[in-house]
Amino acid sequence: MAAAFTLESHGDYWAGRFTAMASPCEVLCDLDDEASARQLTELACAEAQRIEQKFSRYRDDNILYQINHSAGEPVAVDDETAALLDFAAQCYLLSDGKFDITSGILRRVWRFDGKNSFPTKEQIQALLGLIGWPKLTWQRPWLTLPADMELDFGGIGKEYAVDKTALILQRHTAASLLINFGGDLLATGPRRNGQGWLVGVEDPRRLGTQGGKRNTAKEFELVQGAIATSGDTQRYIMHKGVRYSHILNPRNGWPVRGAPRSVSVVAGTCTDAGILATLAMLQGKKAETFLAKQSVKFWCLR
Amino acid sequence: MLLRSIYKTSVLLALLALSACSFQPVQPWERDILAQKKMQLEPYPLDAALDEHTYFSKEASRGGAGVGGGGCGCN
Amino acid sequence: MQLKTKPKPIRKTLAMATATLLGHVTHIGTANAESNPWEIDTAVMSYQENGRVSVLEPVIRMREDKGDDKFFTLKLVVDTLSGASPNGAIPTNSPQTFSGPSGSSSYPIAANTVPLDPNFHDTRYAINAEWEQPAGDARHSIYGLSFSTETDYQSLGASATYNFDFNNKNTTLTTGASFSGDSVQPLGGKPVAFAVVPASTGGGGGGGEDEGGGGGETSFHVNKRVVDLLLGVTQVMGRKDLIQLNFNYGKESGYLNDPYKLLSVVDNTGALITAVAPDSPYIYEKRPDSRNRTALYSRWSHQFGSDVLRLSYRYYSDSWGIRSNTLDMHYRLELGERFFLEPHLRSYKQTAADFYHTSLLNTEVATLDYASADYRLADMTTKTVGLKFGWLVGKHSEAGIRVETITQQAQPSRVIGIQSQQDLLPTVKATMVQLNYRFLF
Amino acid sequence: MTRHRSWQPWLVLFFSLGIFTVAHADDLPNLSLQTKQGGLHLNELRGQVVYLDFWASWCVPCRKSFPWMNDMHQRYSKDGLKIVAINLDKEVNLAKQFLTEYPANFTVAYDPEGLSAEKFKVQAMPSSYLIDRQGKLHSTHLGFKEKDTAAMEAAIKSLLAK
Predict the structure, then answer these.
(1) What would the pLDDT profile of C49-90 be if each residue is shown by its tens digit?
(2) Domain of C76: which CATH number?
(3) Between A94, A160, A289, which is nearest C14 by CB?
(4) Residue A31 domain-assigned?
(5) Beta-carbon contacts below 8 Å between B and C
(6) Diameter of chain B by CA atoms?
């Protein structure tokens, strides 16, 4: 399928842009040759769309749909899905159950559109029975998901796509690349000028308020590694004057209290950075303490 | 005095050999407890070295646990 | 054994899980994100004797896991000593005056007080490096080098240990050897054995080698050699029992005197005499220039539930006539999964060296080959009572505090006449406090 | 399939001398093991190259072997390599805790009684046994040393190619 993307020269690098996973995506290639930049952007676009098609929960032709509509019957999954399931299991253990890919179902009652649609305790309680990684049976390659439960790779998908894309592109070029899928990004190494890529970390308090200016709180140079951000800048509920973040605790079904508005983490891979940012949000007030323990570079905006 | 030590050593070795009849050999996969740090003969080498140094400078005896280490004037 | 620590560091585990997810084919050395090759062990010990010396001793030990059972260990010690130490002379019912080791300063000692030389200030620096490597499937060897230096003493040593495992690793044979060459530079020159200590008013302590002269010799450099050989067996006695038996032979030769130790010369009433030389009743000590020693050492570790008992016993004897028995016990009492208490008891008893004399009769000076009044060569007991509190701070770090009291009681070799009015060898009480911190890095 | 083709395994064998004890062609004891996925019988794995590993949570080199086994599984499972890591911890919980830190993407079996280790006369921890597609023991390996991994991988590849 022909991918729709644009390619633009920025002097000493090329920027390929497209939309995937409902986010603006870009690939910055530190090279002069337009054909190479075009090929790399095509590859990136194809990989992003492949992952979106495979794991999007808005489609009815993919493995996720099969799983979520299996009505309690075992489904045989492919190796990539199996690896993601293994990884999700790992994250569940590492987070003491706070990171749970079965918790997406809570979206049925929590609508984070900034309005005051607030669920009742009974509504939440009813859903809690359908949440919990240990409730499903995962025996590679067989996954058995109890009826009415749902899996959602939304918490990992975009970051995973960034890492996967980077791996693919690096097989085709030695040039330095910056892959940015909706703010989750990865740089593959120093540029020809010996420097890194200049990256901005958003400040939610200034987002969209300053006309043509760049809405960034911090700019810094990323040579090699990834940054991912977890935040609730636009996704929250106001209820009786309290701002509820879209980060939900799968153990009680309620938004995490005291979480920062946004957390950005720098790590070796985008997946790592994304998981750490999400886990930090899930720590609520202890987000900074948690991240400090991980000895990673991070920004918390409250 | 050397003879006396050798005599004592042989008595202890004989005891060791005798007791060897009463112990069960431990299989390689049964060393979970023996592998713990606290079960080592010297789990805290710094404590042991500091003690050795203190008593070396306060008493007339030395040696036994191993070789190595350094000398000192120790007045 | 579920460790409930939060928030806990998960970054490395996560990185490994991600590497698996992304199918990173990484080189094994780098893939093992969890490896913490450095073990850093630090301690600072403070030792304080009542009215005598105090020691402050920080230590750092760094051990690197070089992979494939190879280890490199580096230990650095700084040992700062200050305070007063007995000079060997006996307390008397009248005041005494002594010259310091350099001869230029003198110090008075009140009546009925044990003479302590107040001039002990020294800092010792020691460095110790070890390399451990396998030598075939069931053997490994450890090589060590050590160096230490203080104002008047340097030591350079090397050691090698070989371990052979057999009987399914239930038995280990250990053989070891070490050698050290030490160099002593007594302050004020090497005193001539049995020479009369210059009177404090006499000024410089230097002088010639000639016996009739002063106490000092201008040669500032004397040597001492120490060789040790070790043979040991370690035996696994069961899942919870480990014992070791070592035999150690050592030979020291060269300058074995303590250049700062004196002997009091008395008449048969027990009073200091000045007949040897005017106004100085003190002579320098003299020890044999070699010493052969043997030690038989055994230890046992046993686990009770999760507690661990460690017992050790040593029998020691040497050619100076010293015999000693040492019994040492540690009991590690687990308090939950994060804390432990470890009481420590140690009991030591030695017999006096053949040439130990609390004081000398003037008639003996000419007839004795060797003599020393160093209380450490006396008939003596040491009792240690200690307690350690340990805290497993995290998965890779551990802290500890240890407090011990050490009581030493020596017996005079004989008490002559009026010496019975004195406490010739008062009990020495010391307190030791040690802080430990160990972490993986 | 004649002479000049058969040198390759011999070359591997030659390079791996000193690391591997090449086993007798005796029949291996069969094992029935408990895994998270249910029962596993060693003799049912015939047709695959089996890398049988004995490990425990307290064993330090075992920690280093897990990433390597993950790597081998990742690369060769599609060619018919089956890695079975038998845990010998007396408390299975300790093994599970280990696995959260050192995740395994291969099969892990549990034998708290150590019966399998006894049958295989395990000499050291970890120990591994490389078994060819015919169910014959190819080589035994004691401990886990980084420097031996290349030879072990070569042996696995040569058995997979048969």
Answers:
(1) 988 999 999 999 999 988 888 999 999 999 999 999 999 999
(2) 2.40.160
(3) A94
(4) yes
(5) 219
(6) 49
